[in-house]
Design brief:
The chain is of the alpha/beta class. It has helices at 5-19, 22-25, 38-41, 52-67, 90-97, 102-122, 125-139, 148-163, 170-178, 183-199, 212-221, 259-263, 281-286, 303-315, 329-342, 353-358, 368-380, 384-393, 399-410, and strands at 35-36, 71-76, 79-85, 168-169, 225-226, 231-235, 238-242, 247-250, 255-258, 265-270, 274-278, 292-296, 320-324, 347-348.
Length: 411
């Protein structure tokens, strides 16, 4: 028998009633009936706007099921009031719908999560804890967060990234695990990051980052999973020696180093007096000072880039270290994050009250999240004078205009 859409909806609804009953659990002392009102299957059945033809078609669909001995229909004045399951035909419902019994599904879920728990216990605690919690839900009659098919792909992704030791792009990961280059981004990135942030502590890493997309990016980069290839841009008097003996000399023309090339470095020597990390690419392009070596790291810095900075610092301990970012609370959170992540005592460059005053014509008002962050930094005593000025004058400044003004002054 080929079921119509409405017939399938009805049988599914009756099975849902059955599976959520004490009869299904085997704890009911009296016989139960399972019935569904017609409007639960087709909401327009009780509408004054449904056409006579549509109503007739729906009633015919229900009548066919009754004639097949699958249901019993209660009517009042010729109108269907409810459709009642024939309990001796419940097994036929499952067969017609190609639906598994909830008990069978639950047993499959239990076996699935127990299997992954054993694997997770041996290797990855995140996998173990996620499966433990999902198993707890299933055993208490609740649904897991995702269907088993989704959980299987999710766990395979988690297994891969927890073991990952090299740079992998999101679309490469998506092809390897999901056989679709865009499926990870569309369907699994958020799920993966939710699981990771539930069982691992990223609070320090994400401090001050309120953009959801940026948070996911930072979390995944901790496992060397990147949306796009990762590069560090450098310019100034810097010399890099590779393990194969090659030397790269950098002057004013910037160069981009891939993470792969960074791993091949034998040594890095800064010939300038100062090292300046820059938050935005436009400002990195504009700034020029023969006494400075510039590094563009793109916003918040992951552990790989922090490790690079630590190495530069270790091999060039006599240099002065500065950071140039946006003159707003986020810019100072990035500075705070940078100092804490590297252990380097970065000093803010061109990020003072004088710049706020000089470039006030380009300033913007603080958003509510800006004000919250500024008050938090003020309370922590982190560059309190600047935070106080921003709050009192309701202003912030993007670094691009500052670097532009510096460039004009030096022409």
């Amino acid at each position: 028998m080929n079921l119509t859409i409405n017939q399938s909806k009805l049988l599914h609804a009756l099975l849902d009633k059955y599976e959520n009953s004490k009869t299904y659990e085997g704890t009911n002392a009296v016989s139960q009936n399972f019935a569904v009102k017609p409007e639960k299957v087709w909401k327009d059945y009780v509408s004054d706007y449904a056409s006579v033809a549509q109503v007739k078609d729906f009633e015919t669909e229900m009548q066919v099921l009754e004639e097949q001995g699958l249901v019993h229909i209660d009517r009042k004045n010729g109108v269907i009031t409810k459709v009642v399951a024939c309990k001796e035909k419940l097994d036929a419902y499952y067969e017609l719908l190609g639906r598994k019994q909830r008990k069978d599904i639950v047993q499959e879920q239990i076996a699935f999560f127990e299997r992954w728990m054993q694997k997770g216990l041996a290797d990855y605690i995140v996998i173990y804890m996620f499966c433990r919690d999902q198993l707890g839900k299933v055993k208490t009659g609740k649904k897991p967060d995702y269907e088993v098919e989704v959980c299987d792909k999710l766990l395979r992704i988690l297994e891969f990234i927890c073991a990952n030791k090299e740079e992998v792009l999101e679309r490469e990961l998506s092809m390897m695990i999901l056989e679709d280059s865009k499926k990870f981004e569309k369907q699994y990135r958020a799920k993966v990051c939710k699981v990771l942030s539930t069982y691992l502590d990223f609070s320090e890493l994400l401090e001050g980052i309120d953009d959801d997309r940026e948070q996911k990016k930072v979390i995944l980069q901790e496992f060397q999973i990147y949306a796009n290839p990762s590069y560090i841009y450098l310019k100034g008097k810097i010399e890099i020696q590779l393990k194969d003996g090659q030397r790269i000399r950098i002057e004013d023309a910037p160069i981009a180093l891939s993470s792969e090339l960074i791993q091949k470095m034998e040594a890095i020597r800064v010939k300038a007096d100062k090292v300046v990390t820059v938050e935005n690419l436009t400002s990195f392009h504009r700034l020029k000072d023969e006494n400075c070596a510039y590094l563009f790291l793109a916003g918040y810095h992951n552990s790989v880039k922090q490790a690079f900075l630590k190495r530069v610092y270790k091999e060039n301990p006599e240099k002065q270290w500065f950071h140039f970012g946006d003159l707003d609370p986020d810019g100072f959170y990035i500075l705070k994050h940078l100092r804490k992540g590297t252990g380097i005592d970065f000093v803010p460059l061109h990020m003072g009250v004088s710049e706020l005053e000089t470039c006030s014509g380009y300033g913007r008002e603080l958003s509510e999240p800006d004000k919250v962050k500024a008050r938090n930094l003020l309370q922590q005593g982190f560059y309190a004078e600047i935070m106080q000025y921003m709050l009192e004058h309701d202003c912030k400044l993007e670094q691009e205009i500052i670097s532009y003004e510096i460039m004009k002054k030096n022409l």
